[in-house]
Amino acid sequence: MQTKAAAIAGSAGFLVIAPGVVAGLVPWWLTGWQQGADWPVPVQIAGGLLIAAGAATLLGSFAQFAMEGRGTPAPPAPTEHLVVRGLYRYVRNPMYLAVLAVVVGQALLLGRPVLLGYAAIVAAAFVAFVYGYEQPTLARRYGAEYAAYRRAVPAWWPRLARKAPPA
Description:
The protein is mostly helical. It has one domain (about 5-150). It is built from four helices and no strands. The protein has helices at about 5-30, 40-65, 95-110, 115-150. Helix 1 (about 5-30) packs antiparallel against helix 2 and helix 1 (about 5-30) packs antiparallel against helix 4 (about 115-150). The radius of gyration is 17 Å and the shape is globular. The two termini are about 20 Å apart. The model has no long low-confidence stretch (mean pLDDT about 90).
């Protein structure tokens, strides 16, 4: 059983290591965050909004894992409780979608198509990880609770209706 402080520290560390590298360090390596093509201002604004929404979603989701789940998103230190509230009521994978929003947002803001290609590679890796490791692991760990959650909440395309998942 993790303390709340340990869960917060572990989540913060994993936030820097995983999304920090995927959505921060690698895009910087690919672009130096230098402006590329001169894309229209509305496209750049959309990119900025995607970055802001993705970052807010990431921070909120990581906090929720620590506070509600008493654990981290990192496989070696999973949550004690299945997290099904907040954004997890609408989509099972908001963190992965948030990382992709940040990367796509950077592509649009900077006019750098290379980041769109990178986002596609990251998306494929996320899908492979979720179906190959995460779902089977969560099914073993949380059993019927996770099975009911999977039936109630879509994996990738957020459900907008307010149908509550099983608690």
